[in-house]
Amino acid sequence: MSGLLGYGSCYDAMHEADLLILLGTDFPYDQFLPADVRTAQVDLDPSHLGRRTRLDLAVVGDAGETVRGLLPLVDAKKDRKFLDEMRRKHVKSLTGVVGAYTKDVEKVTPIHPEYVADILDQEAADDAVFTVDTGMCNVWAARYISPNGKRRVIGSFLHGSMANAMPHAIGAASAEPGRQVVAMSGDGGCRCSSATCSPSRPTTCP
């Protein structure tokens, strides 16, 4: 991913590409998009076209239908140099900068939240539903929860509503009672009563 949720390798890939195609995305981090790379955008909503970056081609239409129409016109490339280099950078980020928070930290007090997210990723079911609060829980889920095609991450990605993970988790569990649901909630998702909290410990929850 790019932007605040990314590692940097996607940023490099976009800035070093010959052509950037934005499909049905309105990602808000415009400062991470390249200004001098040929860019095309496809979206059903015309108001999204060119809103984040300048475009060489704007297409109003369904992203899936557009891709299916274009693929027969694209010749497969045999040179994997660019792809392999970007993947190498991605792996380096995961094992280096990101991995620094999750290796040899079992005895660190207090434990890093990144370590908690990494353990959740390892222990959760292959088809688990993760709900994430807006803020750092969102970042930790994006960086440490491994997508596999069966898992799902639910959050307030459009409006950025606070303390959404718990009600999302309740709704997901009610919709699919047999499916594992993991709520990644921050202190905004835990409401304390005056009987259990004191002014000196305003974020302590039972």
Automatic annotation (TrEMBL):
Sequence ranges assigned to domain Thiamine pyrophosphate enzyme TPP-binding in this UniProt record: 133-190
InterPro entries assigned to the protein according to its UniProt record, in alphabetical order: DHS-like_NAD/FAD-binding_dom (IPR029035), POXB-like (IPR047211), THDP-binding (IPR029061), Thiamin_PyroP_enz_cen_dom (IPR012000), TPP-bd_CS (IPR000399), TPP_enzyme_TPP-bd (IPR011766)
Thiamine pyrophosphate enzyme central domain location: 1-70
The keyword rRNA-binding appears for this protein: no
Record PANTHER family: PYRUVATE DEHYDROGENASE [UBIQUINONE]
UniProt family annotation: Belongs to the TPP enzyme family.
Name by which UniProt lists this protein: Uncharacterized protein
